[in-house]
Amino acid sequence: PLAPRPLGLPRRPFLSYDEDAKVATLRVVVFGSDRISGKVARAYSDLRLKESSCPALTRYFRLQFFYVPVKRSCVAPSTPQMHHHPSASLGDALPRAQVGDPSLAVMESSTNDISHYIGLLDPWYERNVLGLMNLPMDVLCQCAKAEAEPQEDSQEQLPILADMILYYCRLAARPVLLQLYQTELTFIGGEKRTEVFIHSLELGHSAATRAIKASGPGSKRLGIDGDREAIPLTLQIAYSKTAASGRSHWNDVEKVCTSVNLSKACRKHEELASKTECLNLTMTEVVKRQNSKSKKSFNQQISVSQIKVDKVQIIGVQSSFAVCLDQDEQKILQSVTRWEL
């Protein structure tokens, strides 16, 4: 600090921002299923909100996400599967699950639809990442053969899975953008909250069931009822039905439902041609309910309908409900009276 400084050259911090300098790339590799992809999406959304007011990380780095999905099975150990695109990657890697593990009930309820959707958008990802999903764990853990005899002091060769992840991160050159859906929730006390999800949203009985399963041993004590034993909710549902013309067609109905679920609609190549991003709205409606004083009340007749929508608003008629985002049993919101997508 005592050394003389040249005049006319202002001091700048070491990480000072230069418009002409190239922004470095920060690669984030995530392992998991749709449940973890939703967690990453919400974390990224929170980061963008913070960076918009006070940029710190994104000022010097460009983020690229690499999604390596994980396939779970109760018959064989969990098998990692890989993905190819640098801009959308999400997931959670879990240790091997033994047959009979009580936590498998929760694992099996998490899907891999986002990874298949990325495969539809990017054939490279489908060939080089999704192709690993069908490989057994013992093959993925094998070490690749060295081109030459390794020296005594050389490090152990990387397993095939690690080699493929490096290959994925180095050669994935085409970013794939994933739609982020925003929903506003209103609770019983009038508090409002904004959340985002990337794959699915569950409302009512299906969300409550997921919360009970996540309680582990407590699920046996609480018990899990099917849709026929579920307590129905009277909901005011307004939705904008998608059309080929792109025009919005609003419907406003009152339904008695056990559950209302939303999920990403694109699962086939033909559906990718549509310019309108839409969701599948699934309503489990109670058509007839048995009410008897001598027997337990149950839903005698249930109807399930599915509609493609782009905007939804649901209000509980003198009742509240639970909401689960992206199959994340750790973020189930209770006592919700209204939500809007």
Would you give an account of this structure?
The protein has 341 residues and is an alpha+beta fold. The protein has two domains: 23-72 and 110-145 and 158-178, no CATH class; 181-340, Sandwich (Tumour Suppressor Smad4), CATH 2.60.200. Helices cover 21% and strands 33% of the residues. The protein has eight helices and 13 strands. The protein has helices at 34-53, 104-107, 113-121, 123-128, 137-140, 160-171, 205-214, 218-222, and strands at 24-32, 61-71, 79-80, 87-88, 181-187, 192-197, 200-204, 233-241, 249-264, 279-290, 298-316, 321-325, 332-340. Strands 5, 6, 7, 8, 9, 10, 11, 12 and 13 form a nine-stranded antiparallel sheet that branches. Strands 1, 2, 3 and 4 form a four-stranded mixed sheet that branches. The longest helix is centred in the first third of the chain and has 20 residues, at 34-53. Pfam families: PI3K_1B_p101 (PF10486).
Offer a concise description of the structure.
With 341 residues, the protein is an alpha+beta fold. It contains eight helices and 13 strands. It folds into two domains: 23-72 and 110-145 and 158-178, no CATH class; 181-340, Tumour Suppressor Smad4.
